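Slide 14.
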Amino acid sequence: MAIFNKIVWSPLVFGVLLLAISVLDVWLFDRQKITPQQMLTNELLVFVFGLILTIIVLVLSLVMAFKKRWRQSVLGLLSVLAYLVLFLTSAHNGVALLYAT
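Slide 15: predicted structure.
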C-alpha cells in the first residue's frame, strides 16, 4: 500500500499545525485582537482535515496489522496517538484561557 507510506505522518503534521494555530490564537486573544469565534474558525479547518486523515490512517493501520506488516501498523498508530495528544493539548490550551477570562 504505497498510499499508506505517503499519508502515515499526516495526522502528526496536522496535530503540530493545530497546536501552533492554537498557541497563536491564544496569544492574539490575550492581546484582544481576536474573538473566541474567530479562534474556533481558524482551528476548525485544520481539526477537520486532521480528524479525517486520522481516521483514514487508523483504518489503514488496522489493515496493515491484519496483513502482518507490524512496522507500518505501529507507525500509523503512533501518528494517530500523536494527533490525539496534540489535539488535546491544543484544546486544553484554549479552554484554560477562555475559562480564566
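Speaker note: The mean pLDDT is 88.
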